[in-house]
Amino acid sequence: GAVVSQHPSRVICKSGTSVKIECRSLDFQATTMFWYRQFPKQSLMLMATSNEGSKATYEQGVEKDKFLINHASLTLSTLTVTSAHPEDSSFYICSPLASSQGEHYGYTFGSGTRLTVV
Amino acid sequence: GQNIDQPTEMTATEGAIVQINCTYQTSGFNGLFWYQQHAGEAPTFLSYNVLDGLEEKGRFSSFLSRSKGYSYLLLKELQMKDSASYLCAVRDRNDYKLSFGAGTTVTVRA
Question: How confident is the model at residue A93 (pLDDT cuts 50, 70, 90)?
Fold first, then answer.
């Protein structure tokens, strides 16, 4: 169980354009979604937390107008990087949390999206 | 908030044992996780500790001491495929957020 599908795995976009990343929980319902960003040789940094049907909560220093999160259903959440710039190039990872997910299973992660802005 | 420290790099020989330490300071502790991450991939779950003591799972074991704010991940019978980054993560009691350490890059040499 706890299968997560994240797309696309890699994307290259031009500076100023927007990119949408999808994260789906395939066999469970995710009431909460965590979105992380990871720069090369650094650890995962939490960007925002979203709960189904409500607005996302952003971590300090993360621009909510730049990183738009939609969590409209229990199986799908999207992160849109708007007006992307080269400094947004990073590895973005989603992590859905099920309402009944057992503690001993830890948190499940998507396969990640490598964004390169040129 | 959380303050999590772990060594940056470790090198060991195939077949040997390596211990990765993690110390943390937290305002509300609700479990400690260890993840393995290969370059360019998402983290994969290795272990979870919420009570003091040792949790053993095959070649990997994890230990927790809550009073000391300390954990370690023990990797036995190292294999080349164990070369990866190992992340220590602490869960907050109040909001279930995970805070990650910077990761320890383990290199296994023949």
Answer: very high
